[in-house]
Amino acid sequence: MGSLSLQNIGRNFGKNKGVFDVNFEVENGEFFVILGPSGCGKTTTLRIIAGLETADTGHMFLDDREITNFPPRMRNIAMVFQNYALYPFMTVKQNIQFPLKIMKMSKADQDAKAEEVAKMLGIDDLMERKPGEISGGQRQRVALGRALVREPALFLMDEPLSNLDAKLRTQMRVELKRLQREFNTTTVYVTHDQVEATTLADRACIMNGGRVVQLEGPLELYNSPADTFVATFVGDPPMNMIPAKVKAANNEVMLEVLGQLIPLKNFTIEEGQEREVKLGVRPEDTLVGDQGIEANLAVIQNVGKSVYEYFKVGDLTIVKQDTKNSGLVIGQNCYLFPDPAKLMLFDEASGKLIYKGGKMVKNAPTTA
Amino acid sequence: MSNSKKDASKEAKSRLLPKHGNVFWLKGFAVVAVTALFILGGFVVLFSHPQGSGPLSTSVPATSSNSVTITVWGSGSPGGEQHVFNSTLAYFEAQYPNITVQDSPAINVASTNFASAAHAGNAPDVYRDTSDNAGALYASGSVLNLSSYLNQSFVNSFTTGTIKDWTLNGALYGVPVNTNGVGLYYNMKLVKTPPKTVYQMLQDAANVTKNTTSTTNTSVWGMPYGLGTNYGYRAAAWFPAFGGQIFNSQEVPVLNSSQDTSAVSFLYNLTYVKNVSPKGLTSMAQEQQLFETNRSAFIIDGPWDQSLYTSYLGSNLNVTALPYDNATGHYPAPIWGSIGYFITSPQASGITSSQIWASLKFIQFETNLTAQKNLFTKAGDFPSLKAAGAFAANQTASDPLAAGWIAQEAHTQIQPNFPQMNFYWSNFHTYVGNLYDNGTHNVSSVMQAFQNAVVSQINQETATPAAPVNWTLYGGIIAAVVIVAGVGAFFYTSRKKKN
Amino acid sequence: MTERAMPIKNNNRRIDFKSLLWILPVLIVLAFLDFYPILEGIYFSLTDFNQFHFFNYGFVGFANYSYIFGSPELRTVIANTLVWSVGSTVVMVPAGFMLALIMNQKNLRGKYIYRSLYLFPWAFPAFLTILVWSNMLAYNGGVVNDLLGLVGISSIAWLTSPTYAMFSIIFVNFWLSFPYYTFVYTSAVQSIPNELYEAAEMDGYGSLRTLTRVTLPLLKRQVAFITIFGFIFTWNNFYVPFLLTGGGPGISTQILITYSYLEAFSYSNYALGAAYAIISILILLVFVIVTNHYTKMMSILY
Amino acid sequence: MENKYSKKEKVQRREEVDVFRMNNYYKNIRTLKKIASHLVLILFALFAVFPIYYVVITSLNSIGSLSASSLADLLPNTKMTLVNYSQIIFQHPFFIWLRNTLILTVASTFIGVMLSITSGLAMSRLNVPAKRMLLYMLLILSLFPFTMMVIPFYFMFSNFHLLNTYLGLIIPYSAGAVIYSTYLIKNYVDGLPTSYEEAAQMDGLSKAGALFRILVPMARPVIVFAAVLAFMGPYTDYALAGQFISSPSLYTLAIGMYYVSQGSITMNYGTYAAFSVLMGIPIFILFFVFQKYLVSGFSLSMYK
Q: What is the CATH architecture of B183-333+418-460?
């Protein structure tokens, strides 16, 4: 339907707030997710795309048409708001027909269109009710219907599921994905929930402090986070981050973590040098063994399909995830070590990923 | 949709340049713009002061064949006077078809409205008011001096008292239509013979008073008199009874004199010493209600309420002159005032010479013998024309009420019609009203404060030197103050925003 | 219908000059119907515009002000104004608040009926009801004294004795204004989510503690705003003293605004009347600035 | 008795009794609280209603004067009559006054509310230059007493030849409504989420279109409330109308009432009361019908 391209988009609210130099392309028919914590600029980016905010700098193209300074109504973009923003004084039907009414579509066409969309969303029996009289999930569908009915070039969603309860949210996620496939609408979706991002997105970008930190498929975000921020933001429970040191001595490169030395392969470092790093290990890559970091089991969380075990090492808490219980009891000491093939190292100063999967990352910052 | 897409792309091409960031200096500009708007408002001050039309050409046409419209305010109190006014007006318009009269009934043309209108140059051409109000307005320059327009024989046809009432500094500023004052009404059911002296009056009042405090409805009072309710009009009658007056011959107030003090003491004692008047009277209406319902023997009031009292008391109503004081031998002399018509000055109303001609015709018509006879018979107004007075005396030779009024007319004072009189009315209400406070004020200190207030207010109004306004200077000062205040307010508010 | 949420702060701080067109009526009203009369009033107060200098008045500087500050009435009038405004405010504002709290209780029946009945004083034109009260409070035949007579209290000169006159006008003003404050506070109190009250109840708070720990802290700026503007409105409330007592007896119920009217229209001293009005405005201005400094009540405006 | 139970049993028993007592105690407290609340509310209701009852009952009595009335007249009785009402309606041009009043009030309410919707929306949603200063000014203007305004107003309107015209009163009345209503509407709209008008913009409306077509219906409570207040002002105004109107054909009800009650030789108390009732009833109905908006119209919510 439409492809979107953002070039150097920036919007400064002062005091380091706003968005800065945002660049990305959204392919035709793609489900694109902007992910980030609150205040990271993801909603501002979405609103700039919608035209509700105007960018200070940069250019924006929809289907190769520059729309940077267009008012929202000229952009052919639809949006679903977090609170759905259903007009409370109109019935469901009037709400859905509203964009068509503004387009001056004939009454018969309006009715037919609205009927069609309502059927598809399963809300055709609610048409004469007011938004105040229907449930949250139904409102969600009406809001979707209002956005879908005019077949926009681009579909924006601002945390549309955050007002629903957990069960409904899962259900609607599936529904959303289905609808997006069915309509084949290019969609930009903003959320702070990384589960939504991983389940829905064709591609996702992570924003922090008003900048795009990483832009990749959802699995890549999980498997090769660009920096400590992405690493800790994506994944639940978050990746364990442990301060460590890489030492090169006696022709051997060793990782010194909490007093333990772990041999490192393929790490580029000069003999006799040291480098401060952060060791990142996913909970499922944390292993229990005969030797390693001495830890004390504090909490066990069994959620059925997997077991989370929280260990204390000094002030640090390390999480381990497995499909079954490790057999330890609370208060018992044991030894933890990272899966050497899966461990990641991040630069202490910049936080960038420098080492992953047993080798150095390309273009990793090299300064000590 | 495809149409709007096309439009949109056109618009995009013309606006490819990105917008700039926050432009904070624009805020300052906005402040200046808004301030400028307000200064604009300020400058309306400079131009909105109505300027009266230029000096009037002294020649007034003897007749005018062109059609003229005059505006008239204050055509009389509703009821009898209104009725007479309307019929006289109908005659007048029949007689002078080229003169159109636009009139407003008396109710809504209070002198405050007249003052605003006169100042705005928007006053009516003819106004009807009491001689003292008109005198103050004449002093302010809102009223035309009629001396040169009216011939002596016309003036001589009025009683000397009323003409004197309408003369200030040798200028006749209006034509009287009636003459009135207060007298003493009494209820013959309660008092058989009218009192001749104050002592007798108090005696009668004391005999009648039957104060039963349990329920107010059964109380009967000898002489209800609300001291603070009457703005000094009725009280003025009693000053001469004790040898006092409001203003001396130099037009200086002498309210703190021992005579005036004893007059007010006398009125005060009616309530607090003689106990013949109830406490807490707030309006004249309350006195009237007591009198109407046979619950008081006396009321001091004017002939304008006579028909009202007759409707309640019938043949029991009678009126007599206020009784004289045994100690001093003086009679009380009510202010024997007059209502009349006057013509406004060109400065106040923009009146033209042909309108003056029409207005003169109009006020002569409204005050002529026929009108005054009608006013006497239909509204009980005492005439100001000598001829009408004779007619009235003839008509009422057998009427005991008229006899009472004629007796009262023998003991009157001319209403002081200079502007200073204005201060007497409200200050009376303010200061003598203090005597409500049962016994905590003494009368002489109240009268002293009354005197001081009137004197200082007269001084304040007359003594301040008037200089022509330097508009450039003061307009500039006002503009500067507004700018400083506006900018200051802006910075004050924007400073807080950062917190 | 009226869904309430945290207002989203409009971060878009760009000045929008086209918006001046939207508020053009307000600007014109401000400029011509407010600023112009105010400037003219200031100007009048610096002249000798009175019945002696009606057309030929001129600039006299601060002569009117120095006359006022030298006059013995000023202190009494300002004291009266303070008694009147403070006295009215301290009864009507808490009463409105109290009624709002009582009516906001859960499971209280007949709220709608009570609220309808409270509409009466508010919904009838004030200048009518003030005159009704003046008749009810009349010394002779007034229904209030008649009713007091039933319980053996002798008649009181409500409006004509300096002891009771101020009390009476405050009382009538209370009758006139408590419904307004009840409605304002009902709206403010209803904006507090019920969960907060329930949480307070679970924490073992009694009614008093709920009031002082939950309701008042949440509404403190609203309360300050309503109170302070109630005070200002009362300060400028002309009709009640003017129609009930006319400032009397003496000047015992004369407040700044009625005194200004008296000077301007009874004594035809328009300049002095304007000067009294300006003095009143200056006092209020200082009052607003000082109270706003401490309560930040103006912040509920934006 | 005393030794029948062991000490432990005794304590247990006492606790049982206490729990029972406590339950009763709390129940009583609740009832008492309810009774006290109703008592206070009823007292205030009586206080609020009594003067109105008094004026209604007086208007139905044929007592000419106040001092002739007694407490017995306060109860419905056989002497009741509608003569006061018929006097007002048939002996005076009551319907002309009513027409004038309605023309003035409806026109100025309409103009005032329309203009204040625009400016209220702008003050809330657009970036008006020096917005805060304007807001302060709007409020600080309420500090100015009307006595100061009367003469300048008169001069200005005289200059524009607006005295004695409908327009001359409609302008200041709607101006007065604009100031207060702008502030009310602004405050209310501030409490509405911006997403509604943003959604409308996404649906194809311009910013102005979105504000008017979406926010105006949503702000209906405050608009109705502002309209009621805007209606109330001109309806009851005497000060300004008394200054500006001198022609009897333009009298409003307030002036007419003054005319009837002061104009007859002495104030007829029953006539006055009847006029009060006639004048008060429309306003009261207005307030009663829109009662729910009176509460929701104020927007002093805690979030502000």
A: 3-Layer(aba) Sandwich (3.40)
